[in-house]
């Protein structure tokens, strides 16, 4: 017999996540130090087995969009006015992955994914770790979304426009799929930052990996980092099992939303997609 469905308010009374980890002083201090020193912090087993299955079931109940893009590492179409075509600012890569955006997730009966990413307990913890007050992004789709990466997809190296990103890993692939990153590699969030140009040249254009670090998060892990300052990607996966994650984006600015350039270069939700829409599991 299948388990009865959990109601939306069950996020606070059922064991979907281990909230006690976010108030543990030792965990808080370790995460704060890791974010500052390593550019990334992780909490294994933040989502329980019940929670992982509940969040994943909600995501898989939604239609999803297979997005195929050709853009720069800033998730835009470049700047040919101020930079030559062969400059890192204009170097484009092919990107592909599948997404379910906020607009679809909030239509689910329980909206557990939406509730989790907007929960004040999570925001308080992230604010403490980042040493600045965090607000959830106001982006209509990029504020909360799920990605699904399969073996034929090509997740690219990129900087986020949103200052901070949290990922909860819900399904691991049979191989590959590591979180790859170069921590705190540009001082500003500007597309004109020279350090950002240099890291694109080294990692993407010249395929130099000396600065690249890897984490292989297991299902249930919460990962938090500054995607605007840390160059990153999900490595390609192998096998027939997709890597699935739930993503929330955050900023120290209360009214942050992605620019129109970044929005037009991403298709986070099938409701606004020009690509194929699939229903059910794959």
Question: What features would you highlight for this structure?
Answer:
282 residues; disordered N terminus; 14 strands; 24% strand; alpha+beta; nine-stranded antiparallel sheet
Report what the structure shows.
It is a single chain. With 282 residues, this protein is of the alpha+beta class. 23% of the residues lie in helices and 24% in strands. The protein has 7 helices and 14 strands. It has helices at 25-38, 49-60, 102-105, 112-118, 120-130, 194-205, 260-265; strands spanning 40-43, 64-72, 92-100, 135-136, 144-149, 164-171, 175-176, 179-182, 213-215, 222-225, 231-234, 237-238, 243-251, 277-278. Strands 1, 2, 3, 4, 5, 6, 10, 13 and 14 form a 9-stranded antiparallel sheet that branches. Strands 9-8-11 form a 3-stranded antiparallel sheet, with helices on one face. Helix 1 crosses helix 5 (120-130). It is globular.
Summary, kept brief:
With 282 residues, this protein is of the alpha+beta class. It is built from seven helices and 14 strands. The two termini are 24 Å apart.
SSE layout:
Elements: H1 25-38, E1 40-43, H2 49-60, E2 64-72, E3 92-100, H3 102-105, H4 112-118, H5 120-130, E4 135-136, E5 144-149, E6 164-171, E7 175-176, E8 179-182, H6 194-205, E9 213-215, E10 222-225, E11 231-234, E12 237-238, E13 243-251, H7 260-265, E14 277-278
Antiparallel strand pairs: 1-10, 2-3, 2-14, 3-5, 4-13, 5-13, 6-10, 6-13, 7-12, 8-9, 8-11
């Amino acid at each position: 017999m299948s388990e009865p469905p959990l109601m939306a308010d069950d996020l606070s009374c059922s064991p979907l996540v281990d909230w006690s980890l976010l108030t543990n002083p030792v965990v808080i201090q370790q995460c704060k130090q890791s974010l500052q020193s390593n550019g990334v912090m992780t909490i294994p087993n933040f989502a329980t087995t019940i929670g992982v299955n509940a969040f994943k079931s909600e995501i898989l109940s939604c239609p999803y969009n297979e997005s195929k893009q050709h853009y720069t590492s800033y998730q835009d179409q470049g700047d040919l006015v101020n930079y030559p075509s062969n400059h890192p600012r204009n170097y484009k890569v092919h990107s592909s992955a599948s997404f379910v955006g906020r607009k679809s997730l909030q239509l689910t009966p329980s909206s557990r994914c939406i509730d989790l990413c907007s929960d004040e307990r999570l925001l308080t913890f992230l604010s403490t770790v980042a040493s600045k007050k965090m607000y959830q992004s106001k982006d209509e789709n990029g504020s909360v979304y799920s990605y699904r990466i399969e073996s034929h997809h090509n997740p690219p190296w990129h900087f986020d426009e949103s200052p901070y990103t949290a990922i909860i890993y819900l399904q691991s692939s049979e191989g590959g799929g590591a979180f790859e990153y170069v921590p705190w590699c540009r001082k500003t969030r500007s597309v004109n930052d020279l350090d950002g140009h240099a890291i694109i040249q080294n990692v993407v254009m010249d395929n130099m990996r000396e600065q690249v670090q890897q984490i292989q998060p297991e299902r249930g892990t919460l990962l938090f980092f500054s995607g605007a300052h840390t160059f990153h990607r999900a490595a390609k996966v192998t096998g027939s099992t997709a890597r699935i994650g739930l993503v929330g984006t955050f900023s120290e600015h209360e009214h942050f939303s992605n620019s129109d350039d970044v929005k037009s270069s991403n298709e986070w939700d099938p409701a606004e997609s020009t690509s194929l829409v699939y229903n059910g599991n794959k």
